[in-house]
Amino acid sequence: MKVTVIGTGYVGLPTALVFADLGNDVLCVDKDEAKVAMLRAGQVPIYEPGVEALLRRSLDDGLFKVTPSTDEGMQHGEVVFIAVGTPQGDDGEADLSAVWAVARDIAKYICHYTIIVTKSTVPVGTGDRIEQILVDAGVDRSMFDVVSNPEFLREGTALPDAQHPDRIVIGADNQAAAHKLMELFAPLEAPVIITDRRSSELIKYASNTFLAIKISFINAISRMCEECGADVSAVARGMGSDPRIGNKFLQAGLGWGGSCLPKDVAALNKIAADLGYDFKMLQAADEVNEQQTRHFVQRLSDRIGGFQGKTIGLLGLAFKPNTDDIRDAKSLEIIEMLKAEGATIRAYDPAAAENVRAIHPDITYVNSALETGQNADAIILVTEWNEFKSLDLTRLGQIMRRKLIFDGRRVFTPYQIERAGFEYVTVGAKG
Ligand code: UDX
User: Fold this and answer.
1) Measured in angstroms, how far is the CA atom of residue 323 from the centroid of ligand 1?
2) For residues 102 and 82, is the Cβ–Cβ distance under 8 A?
3) The pTM is what?
4) What is the C-alpha to C-alpha distance for residues 151 and 154, in angstroms, rounded to an integer?
5) What are the residue numbers of the active site?
6) Each residue's pLDDT tens digit, 229-281
7) How far is CA 90 from the centre of its chain?
8) How far is the CA of 215 from the centre of ligand 1 (A)?
9) Is the CB of 250 under 6 A from ligand 1?
10) 131 lines ligand 1 (CB under 6 A)
């Protein structure tokens, strides 16, 4: 099938590559000419495992091309995916300016019947508005259908998630358009949920915000554990064994960040308010999340007698492992708090350091996890990159001023810590 994907970000690029891998003829459109040049040369502007190898293979196979021209994109695709960013705007509302700009471009260049599909997370009613933009621009209604097909892939595991989705949601008010998309997705052999467009748009927000609530729930329990001496991992294991609860997304830590959960919580809260519903549960989840990192840093401050004149090592800066994305990363919050109180910071991340350097050029970025410990009064583990799990704690301890680890993601085991003689403080346990 001839497929066009508009937007080559964390969602658009992996999605497009998976379509190409399935044998479709894929053309990506991106306005950013520098990005287009990079992709044509087989280079990926983002860090996402496996993407570069698949890009090179797809370019060689001739099944993946990229252009800055929406005109070319519209000539090419029978199905055109909109996968541009919908960041948080004013009042928590999703900023849809990129989606509207693409819709206006589509209206300008549409030249044959096209199924226009929104992959981006968009508020209920966005499909209606895209339809209206095309009609207002004089495009005949018979030339297109607008379908919602929310993307559920996670950063860091984008390719496997896109190759093996646990469900595919197609929101279409026209059965023929829904069937065309089913044909495209059939090789993935995933369960397909076909529904109306508005329900589909809401499914994405409901899913992401439910995940945020789930994480905030276990983080709220973690606060109780710290007081009563229970262990949050044991509690999560016990809860998660009930299949009605499930063991995923019950990892207590510094809270949720990233490019999706925070903005989707804010956006659904705003959508609910606009509909006259006060979504208190969502606001409470947000509040728990806001307190989580602050509370953790306060525990550290209490433990070491304030940060003035102290050196703190940061392990991990990305909002989660296996990505270079730092949008709403907990590291940024921590850096700001530490800087405000006069700490010296030594930070390491395998992929995201350069992105943080652009915001905080005044802290020290080191080249290995071990080096964060040089003369440090404490280490904070912020992001649970795999390489930190096998860090040589004995060597780390030898170069630190004080052997103290604050584990924000519950990565280390008590055995590892005891053997290396560290003081250890973690989320959801007394100490
Ligand atoms: C999320 C959704 O999972 C995905 O379906 C959607 O398409 C995009 O948004 P993503 O933002 O890439 O994906 O990351 P995710 O793995 O969901 O993690 C989000 C945040 O929650 C991270 O900050 C992570 O550290 C945190 N988290 C996740 C926890 O604190 N505990 C958990 O148990 C799981």
Assistant:
1) 12
2) yes
3) 0.95
4) 9
5) 260
6) 999 999 999 999 999 999 999 999 999 999 999 999 999 999 999 999 999 99
7) 20
8) 9
9) yes
10) no
Residue 220, Cβ density class (10 Å: 0-12 exposed, 13-18 middle, ≥19 buried): middle
Which of 379, 348, 380, 382 lies closest to 363 in space, CA to CA?
Answer: 348
Q: In this structure, is the dihedral angle defined by the CA atoms of residues 220, 222, 226 and 228, taken in order, positive or negative?
A: positive
